Amino acid sequence: MPTEKPKIILVVTDDMLKRIDDFRFENRISSRSKAIRLLIEGGLKLNSDPEKEEDSDPLLD
Length: 61
Known about the structure:
With 61 residues, the chain is mainly alpha-helical. The chain has a domain at 14-42. Helices cover 48% and strands 0% of the residues. The model has no long low-confidence stretch (mean pLDDT 87).
């Protein structure tokens, strides 16, 4: 069944793909796409946390 949701193409390293798959299997997630969505949501929540230090951005380190 096709979806109307936007799609993106993401290029990752072999190491990152292994880490995503490890996260998926450790958490018994049904698909790689769902695992990536959960990881992105977690990162976005962390980034929007008001308690977070202003000068620290783990994505830029």
